Amino acid sequence: MREASFEFLKQLLTAPSPSGYEQPAQRVFRSYISSFAQVGTDVMGNVFGFIEGAGDNRPRVMLVGHSDEIGLQIRYVDDDGFLYFSAIGGVDPHITPGARVHVHTAKGTLNGVIGKRPIHLIEPKERDNVIKLEKQFIDIGASNKKEALELVRVGDPITFAVGLERLVGDRVTSRGLDDKAGSFVVAEVLRLVSELPAQLPVDLYGVSSVQEEVGLRGGTTSAYSVNPDVGICVEVDFATDQPDVEKKHNGEVSLGKGPILPRGANINPALFDLLSDTATQQGIAVQYTGIARATGTDANVMQISRNGVATALVKLPLRYMHTPVETLSLSDLEAAAKLIVATLARITDKDAFIPV
């Protein structure tokens, strides 16, 4: 991966963006694409990059990846200065005790830890119990409620205190790869399209959406605003090349073997065929999965926006989803961007996606 792209990915992942608090990450996305696309932001906080195409009756194509990540939010401060919190999105209470966190306040970022009784003080019969999130607390070092409230407010967002790190080979780990990896690919597609020697036959909208983790909200409003003929959502999906995931249920998906093209009711069959055929033509390795119902991604709301949109998913294999150590292969990100750019060049007629 080129150095400038990796640095963008690192900045995007470092920026805090729990659902409803995405502005720091959206500023990074907006700054990156501003040199090669027309940029706008709506009242929800979705960021749009636009590149005009060439020719008459150009299809409107929308790419979307969501910038929001799971996180926590302060809901109560007790008399001793400990912070109690709620989950933003799907947070697993198994993994939070003992975690280091960042509390994002109006005065800056505070370090904190999610406390837990030492094992010596836990009765043997209690050791296998999961502590409910509402009973967990954050220690920022404050001595009492007054001191804590001078630093934080109820409603302040919280993220896990980890960023992007390299593993062996081209694999990386970070919190928030779900789905800043998707936003990254959208931005890279815009960059690559801007560098093409000729304009594409489509008007291209690249969107970094908000509030996906709490109800696909930014995807809903941005699809309504763009009113695309064709939509491609870039998301993450469960990699099954780890010891404790069942392939029979989730399919066979591995890191480093290319992006995933799902099939199912949420996917326009002609657009799926175009993506799959383009991958073959371009020699891009892809993986296939089946999703027999709505996908739970921005593709779901995009498909049924207004009078309907020809929609597909390009997914990125991800290990350990919704943990602070989400892990993927950088080559899958690059292959996804390459596949989408090559596919865009072959979209010339919006009516080609009407099922017959």
Give structural notes.
- With 356 residues, this protein is α+β, with helices and mostly antiparallel strands.
- The protein has two domains: 3-69 and 175-353, 3-Layer(aba) Sandwich (Aminopeptidase); 71-160, Elongation Factor Tu (Ef-tu), domain 3 (Beta Barrel).
- 27% of the residues lie in helices and 26% in strands.
- It has nine helices and 17 strands.
- The longest helix has 18 residues, at 177-194.
- The protein is globular.
Please outline what is shown here.
The protein contains 9 helices and 17 strands.
Give the secondary structure arrangement, pairings included.
Layout: H1 3-14, H2 23-33, E1 38-41, E2 47-51, E3 60-66, E4 71-77, E5 83-88, E6 100-105, E7 108-114, E8 137-139, H3 145-149, E9 157-160, E10 165-166, E11 171-174, H4 177-194, E12 203-209, H5 217-226, E13 230-238, H6 247-250, E14 260-264, H7 269-282, E15 287-291, H8 298-303, E16 310-318, E17 326-329, H9 330-344
Parallel strand pairs: 3-12, 3-13, 13-16, 14-15
Antiparallel strand pairs: 1-2, 2-12, 4-5, 4-9, 5-8, 6-7, 6-9, 7-8, 10-11, 11-17
Helix pairs in contact: 1-2, 1-4, 4-9, 7-9
Q: Main traits of this protein?
A:
six-stranded antiparallel beta barrel, 9 helices, 356 residues, Elongation Factor Tu (Ef-tu), domain 3, Aminopeptidase, six-stranded mixed β-sheet, alpha+beta, globular
Using the 3D structure, state the CATH architecture of the largest domain.
3-Layer(aba) Sandwich
Write out the CATH superfamily name of the largest domain. Answer: Zn peptidases
Largest sheet: 6 strands, mixed
Beta content: 25-35%
- What is the topology, as strand order, of the major beta sheet? 1-2-12-3-13-16
Overall spatial form? globular
CATH topology-level name of the largest domain:
Aminopeptidase
Number of domains: 2
Work out the number of β strands: 17
Number of helices: 9
Which structural class do you get from the secondary structure elements? alpha+beta
Distance between the termini: 41 Å
Uncertain spans, ≥5 residues at pLDDT below 50? none
Mean pLDDT: 96
CATH class of the largest domain: Alpha Beta
Output the helix-strand order: HHEEEEEEEEHEEEHEHEHEHEHEEH
What is the helix content? 25-40%
